[in-house]
Amino acid sequence: MTGLNGTRRPAAPGSSDAAGKRRVRETLLQRVIEEIVSGRFPEGAILPNEAELAERFGVSRTSLREAMQHVVAQGMIRSRTRAGTMVLPRSNWNYLDPLVLDIVLRHTTDPQFYLSLIDARQLLEPAAAAQAAASATEADLQAIAEAYDEMVEANSRDTEEWSAADLKFHTAIIDASGNWVYRQFVTAIRAALLASFRLTNRASQSHEDALRMHRDVVEAIRTRRPDASRHAMQRLIGLARSEIADALPRD
Amino acid sequence: MTGLNGTRRPAAPGSSDAAGKRRVRETLLQRVIEEIVSGRFPEGAILPNEAELAERFGVSRTSLREAMQHVVAQGMIRSRTRAGTMVLPRSNWNYLDPLVLDIVLRHTTDPQFYLSLIDARQLLEPAAAAQAAASATEADLQAIAEAYDEMVEANSRDTEEWSAADLKFHTAIIDASGNWVYRQFVTAIRAALLASFRLTNRASQSHEDALRMHRDVVEAIRTRRPDASRHAMQRLIGLARSEIADALPRD
DNA sequence: GATGTCAATTCATACTACAAATTGTGAACG
DNA sequence: CGTTCACAATTTGTAGTATGAATTGACATC
């Protein structure tokens, strides 16, 4: 894997033929979601009928419908015979889907959207760390330590590896919590890290601070101190929060 | 809506023909997910090829594939040419999808699964209540009050209305928090309430206790006291937790 | 003005055909 | 005997077409 990137098609955006023949549905899905998220088809709007959409995107109706089923599964649209396909209210969307979240984040300018994400992290991750300290297995601890080591190594080099190791670190702790609900939010954390790297021109000096805080978390979990783990993680996310807050427009 | 019920087809469970001609995909989807969740096709297993599956379920390959796209969207399977369709590890599944969660809950006997759900509620909902106290709009407050009133009314009658009002109550508070991440969690709460009603033979006397606690939450939010709201919600979920814990096998 | 009937539109399902990709087998060669 | 290369078989991916079913909207009738 190339780090945090989800898709990796060569470079052919909209060319319907050429070497982009394979993976029609994946690119098609992305385009459809993009049209909805971007507001070209706002909530409550009726999409053009399937025949027209298929022609517009240059694919068969079969492929279009398969992609649409994916969008239906995310709660973004709903089709009814004769009535057409309607865009559902955003409150119904599954924002935790990686593709959906990626696209939404690249289209939104609302600072509150990012702040909500950070708030959720600041709630979830300290709790997960505390639980991890209480119940992590040896394998869990090893995975956490390994991720931390990778961050140390990546520190001298550059961002791509650092962010991958960072994600691995937080994911390992959430996994160690053993709570399946917490695990559902890993995609949101991934998105938050991505956004953080997009928004802030992180000085490598701040890596040093971050690294220290990560080490504190590792130590607290390893020595089985739930409260210390919780607080160490709180401080760590607090740093991330302030970085994001600085990069956003003032409230 | 009829309360907590997601689907509402007449009464024909598995009859492949008859009046069940319509909504093939919905029942098909349910059956496919059920086969995977039940362990008939465990993690890592390769499903029969599409032609065979289509025949087995008595549908066309087109319909089967459209249903499969839903399953793909939930991260449960992955198809590759020539290699077949593989069941992905459960860590990859989107458990917050209503259909998936319903089916999983009806198949799991692991008490820890329920406890994790309650833990997550006990983490998220107090935070949401506090945030609601701080930033709810008048419309938000009204929605919460309305849900509470419905619970009062439903108290004398019976369970169906009570549970619907209960869900509405918790949903309204989470909505009032204004945090989109918290909102993603509503399906899990719905599932938790369903499970609670399945597992416990709630005495109507306990409704009185519950009602008082709900009222405390409403009051705390209405009077804009975040900490009081948090604590009131903590007590409320604590009650739910003890009810569930009593109903589960001993640890 | 209200109501019932009918036709047009749109999604839903089915069937068929072919393309693309990957895996496994087997032959050729070192 | 082991390794590598090429080819064939299998399975998913995409396309095209046809038909069914449901709902809406208009029209006619009372």
TrEMBL record, chains A, B:
Is the keyword Transcription regulation assigned to this protein?
yes
Fetch the InterPro entries from UniProt: GntR_C, TF_FadR/GntR_C, Tscrpt_reg_HTH_GntR, WH-like_DNA-bd_sf, WH_DNA-bd_sf
Residue numbers spanned by region Disordered? 1-22
- Domain HTH gntR-type, by residue range, is 22-90
Query: What domain of life does the UniProt record list for this protein's source?
Result: Bacteria
Keyword Oxidoreductase in annotation: no
UniProt name for this protein: Transcriptional regulator, GntR family
From what organism does this protein derive? Faunimonas pinastri
